[in-house]
Amino acid sequence: MTETSAEPVRPAAAPGEPVRRAARDGIALGLAVGTSGLAFGAAAVASGLSPAQACVLSLVAYTGASQFALAAAVAGGGNLIAGTASAVLLGSRNGLYGLRLASLLGFRGRSRLLAAQGITDESTAVALGQQALGRPGRAAARAGFLATFGSLYLTWNAATLAGALGAGRLGSPSSFGLDVVGPAAFLALLWPRLRDGRTERMVALAGAAIALVATPFFPPGLPVVLAAAAALGAALLPAAGAGPASAAGSPDGAPGGAAQRSRR
Amino acid sequence: MSATWIAVLVTAVCCYALKLAGLTVPPRWLAHPRAQRFATLVPVALLAALIAVQAVGRGQSLAIDPARLAGLGAAAAALLLRAPFLVVIVAAAGTAAGLHALGLA
Asked: Shortest Cα distance from A128 to chain B (angstroms)?
């Protein structure tokens, strides 16, 4: 990890090199973030979910915010229908990510059914970050996505089981600084795009502001979904017409992608 | 089947369905430049929101967690120094863990 892997400009790397680096970044992030499955497993069982229920959520739902939301609803002895609804609403974020990832990753048929399960904040950030890290192209984006998916899925599920069985008492991930790995990684992967694009900067600032302002008024997780309004606003603003927002064209030749990309 | 199991299964299946739905939206729906801009900018907005909420959010309140903020600060410093991705992450986690170990946070 000491080599100069993420130098933004490295014109003439060997063909397989970007793919290997993308995979390595994804694996490391997945391993580190996955440990917070311990916290979920412990919280789920403390809420009154069985270890089997906690594991089914991690295996099938596989999206942290929604899982915590359902556990919280069960814990409160609250309305399970409302709890389920809020968990599903939080999951809509992954659907929005999918809109972007579809053209970037280009999975079809059965591989798409599998890839869909891999969509999380982390895998999205790594897939989208590859171009900004100087590794453009579908191969690197796919490698980053799949590596994050694989390592995070395995770690998250193993940690969920361990946490549900009581391993959470051994020590919290936050004492190892692992709770800061997620936001630090998102910052690192957004960073180059924020430096380059004015539109991206505005959208990021607005998204963060919306989420913070909304935090006291909504259940955890929802403020982040509401931040999508920042993207909606920027997309609809006529003045922002030709922003450098588009980072990858559609493989299906949808108009706009290539033209906007060439603006960089 | 208990009500809790039903809630668990409905949540799990719907969360997967949402992921798949996003990934299978017909390309022509996104052909409009504005739709494409929305799809492109959504991750930027959401990831920035996540950074903010995870930095200073605790449940439904805003709270300063010195270790977490210091960790993010270390990440930002590493980014300014153009450190590789993994170095950024290790700097963030190491800083936060160090402060925890020293009992400062």
From this structure: 9
Handedness of CA A46, A117, B18, B39 (dihedral sign): positive
Mean of the per-residue pLDDT values of chain A? 83
Closest CA to A43 of A157, A158, A168, A159: A168
Cα radius of gyration rounded to whole Å, chain A: 19
Domain interval for residue B13: 1-31
Q: Which of A206, A211, A246 sits opposite B37 (nearest CB)?
A: A246
A119-170 confidence digits (pLDDT tens): 999 999 999 999 888 888 899 999 999 999 999 999 999 999 999 998 766 6
Residue B22 inside a domain? The answer is: yes
Please give the Cα distance from B97 to A153 (Å, whole number).
24
Record: contact A96-B22, CB cut-off 8 A: yes
Quick check: is B100 in a domain? no
Chain pair A-B, CB pairs under 8 angstroms = 346
Mean pLDDT computed over B11-21: 97
pLDDT tens digits along A44-91:
998 899 999 999 999 999 999 899 989 988 887 778 888 898 899 989
d(CA A194, CA B105): 30
pLDDT of residue B105: 62
pTM of the model: 0.80
| Chain A residues within an 8 Å CB radius of B11 | 57, 61, 66-67, 70, 84, 87-88, 91
B96: left (phi over 0), alpha (psi -120 to 50) or beta: alpha
- What pairing do the DSSP bridges indicate for beta strands B57-58 and B61-62? antiparallel
In a domain, B52, yes or no: no
User: pLDDT tens-digit profile of B35-79?
Assistant: 989 998 999 999 999 999 989 988 788 888 899 999 999 999 999
Burial of A109 (0-12, 13-18, 19+ CB in 10 A): exposed
Domain count across chain B: 1
Phi-psi region of B63 (alpha: psi -120 to 50; beta: other; left: phi over 0): beta
Residue B8 lies in a domain: yes
**Which residue from B3, B36, B48 is facing A256, i.e. has the nearest CB?**
B36
